[in-house]
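FW: tagging you since you asked about this chain on Friday. Here's the raw sequence from the shared folder, copied in full. Didn't touch anything.
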Amino acid sequence: MNGIMETRTTASAPTLSPDRNLASDIDCDAFVRDIYDQYGSLLVRYAARLLDGDWHKGEDIFQETAARAWKHAQFLGARHESLRPWLFTVTRNLVIDHHRARQVRPLEHMADEELDASSDNTSSTIDAHAVSQALAELNEQQRSVICLMYYLECSAAQAAEHLGIPAGTVKSRAFYAVRALRKALEKQGILGV
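HL: got it, structure written out here
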């Protein structure tokens, strides 16, 4: 086990000197906007790198980091030199928490037949049936990649781990699976050419 994962240092917010009240001096909304402008892309990239390329989860981690910074805005706003390290430490700790949660509750193994395409409330019943028929026309490898990445919303790295294949192979299969699914839907008259 990685030593980083075993020991967790908490990033406590810098303390406010008792003789100064900064609550009225700091506009929390402007503070959070500045965090998004200055550190948003850096923190999302950092989190995504720690999450094996999962950008969606990286964005979620950044959202949580920004929310925590907002909670401590009155303390962090006056100490600009310690803001960047605090943000990166909080992001790192949230990623570690995510990894620990995944170890406790790993990706569930679900058969492709158990996925129900009709649960999507935005699609009509006819479209859901057509997608189910089109999925049935795909081979097993393509169907499993589509189900993992689009129904269960797994990243390529997570799908690769689940299937026991390299992430590049998952991306390639996903590309060809989407193309085959599109052709099957066009054949049914659902998608226009």
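FW: The chain has a mean pLDDT of 75.
HL: agreed, and The radius of gyration is 22 Å.
FW: great, closing this out.
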